[in-house]
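Field reference: sequence -> structure
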Amino acid sequence: MNSPALLSEAGTWFLVAYLASLILIGFAGKFASKEESMKDFYLGGSGFGVGVLFLTMYATQYSGNSLIGFAGSAYRNGWFFAVGVTFMIAVVGGYLLYAPKLYAISKKHNFITVGDYINFRYNSQLLTYLVVGISIIALGNYMLTNLKAIGYIMEYVTGGGIGFTEGIIFMAIIMVIYETLGGMRSVAWTDAIQGVLLFVGVIIIFSVIMIHYGTLNENTALFLQNKPQLFADITLSSQITWISVILLIFFGISVYPQAIQRIYSAKNEHTLRRSLSLMVIMPLLTTLPLIIIAIIGSAHFPELDKAGSEQIILLMLNKLTSIEGMSIVITIFVAAAIAAIMSTVDSAMLAVASLFTQDIYHKRNPNATQKKLTYIGKVFSWGIMAFMVVLAVNLPSTIWWLIQIKLEILVHIAPAIMLGVHFKNISHKSIIYGLLVGLTITLMFLLTPLPSKPFGFHAGVIGLLFNFLTVYLHHRYKSLHLSKKAHNS
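Structure field:
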């Protein structure tokens, strides 16, 4: 790494102080705990108000993928990726489809994980294991993509002083410490800080780019010279891709297990609805500025490969290091990027640990005390983080590709959740058959020489279509069979 460090000495000390404060928040969360129980540790006592709930949802949803993966994709696809704003709005639409009803049920029956709901609603251990297994795989992927992002950032901002591997290991240790100290309280409180840092960082860096690189209009000549393809008409294929990604995100991101845990953690339904209403406007204030920055960057740095495109914002900042006062701006952005990543990884880690402990370990050890279960969850957090660090260091792939693979698997738990809260007569067999058929079709396209995007749609979307269709056909068949049987009797 030959590029100079982006962070000044003062900036480095600010970052150190910020990370140290997260450890202190971990201790604060530990001291604030009321009891050693799964509900208290993994849901923070289910008492989060609008401020904390909104910020923890915001910080978790806008992860390192937003700052690294989304920016990289906007660089490569140009104006077409402005639809990324609608992607993030679609997530909130997905929440509104099921969250209020799920919250009411969770309050009544004290759910901790998505597995608790599945087991309660369908009374099927097999279906619960399938949903939990898919969730853990998807969350592991989520942790992986964001750990890779934090490795890229740490290496770049330190000019190679901290390597890709060392950066991942160091930040992983910080996260697992404060998460295992205070559980959901520590995670939500750190998310609140990280959410503010992310929002402020994006707004500041957007303003700086506009001042020093110029607006979109001011860069028109440079676009025509270096990126004329930005002005090309949107093709039918691109439109199909847009629809496909919308569906993938609507049914995928909105059923993240860590998001469901935040739904459970709301103080009341009014708090949940207000937090979701605030989330609707955040894509315009977070995603859109990042897309515009990346598109402007594509005119100034036109020859980047896929890996380089995912560092476009850092490259643009690096060019401005000689400007007075830029060290402060760069420090804020670096802190925001790291905050976004950490808020995502710690939430995913917490969700994985709770899924394993509550839905797998506890089922096999029904007499285990709440204290023992909480301890098992903490130990598992350290184990899963170590495993993800190893994969992040050794698995080569672009972040956006990994995001899509994760979502194409995760979408298949959506019917169990979204249909389950609205249609009381759907049986566990209908859901199981739908899930297995949909997942098989998805993996067939992803893991064989067949095209991964049949007819321009993602394999996960095609699989999800067959998932819903199978659920409907089996439910319809069962209803007709029971009706015929009742008539004959």
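Note: The CA atoms of residues 6 and 322 lie 10 Å apart.
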